[in-house]
Amino acid sequence: MKHPTETDALGEFLVSARSLAEYRAIFELTPTDLRGRILDCPGGAASFAAEAAELGAQVTATDPVHAKPAAELRELARTETERASAYAGAHRDRYRWDFYGSPDRHQSIRLAAATRFGDDLLANPDRYVAAQLPALPFPDNSFDLALSSHLLFSYTDRLDADFHLAALLELSRVTTGETRLYPLVDHTGHPQDDLVAHLRKKLHDKGIPTALRPTRYEFHRGATTMLVLQPNQARVRTHP
Ligand SMILES: C[S@@+](CC[C@H](N)C(=O)[O-])C[C@H]1O[C@@H](n2cnc3c(N)ncnc32)[C@H](O)[C@@H]1O
Asked: How far is the CA of 42 from the centre of ligand 1 (A)?
């Protein structure tokens, strides 16, 4: 299995900062979803955890970058946001701008999220756990819902199919309810349909039903579907 190296995890992946509004649209989150124990993996510099916690959810965000000192991570959140917005602006034809409106607004939304993340990191450091897939430091069934945005399927240039399967099994292990993943295209916008089909078959064979569910969010053109893992049927039978 091709595992991410420390350099990959800390240096080469974009550390993005999405907001609750973005996660709500991406994952079609309902008020009920936002009441339980939620895992955000990778959390990156997203303000989802801070904002959802304010609404009453118990959120844990996990990401290898959370190992960095808070001051360094707050600064990284800002510089990475500028990097992401500059990239999106330079490649604007790859994207649909319905959600953000314009590259400038994309930048202001993301900078607000990065700032919110940085503030919460100082106020609630226990919410942010340094760890990396495919091995998470949580007991089985720790969460009611797991959300995974912009890591799996996004970086197939460096994360292979075995890594994806191990990561999905790990997210499913720590979650009693659904695990939702988005997008199913890579970071250049190429659909990952063959990988998705391969993983769905492997998961099915291990007792984990999956579904493709439409999402109203679309930034990369054509990325209008999330992958949903249902609870592992073998575990449901053992622990009804
Ligand atoms: C593009 S960001 C996505 C962050 C957040 N989900 C969002 O949508 O804003 C990708 C994140 O994956 C993290 N990452 C890289 N390797 C990882 C791994 N093996 N396990 C968990 N997170 C990882 C990176 O550190 C980076 O913060």
From this structure: 4
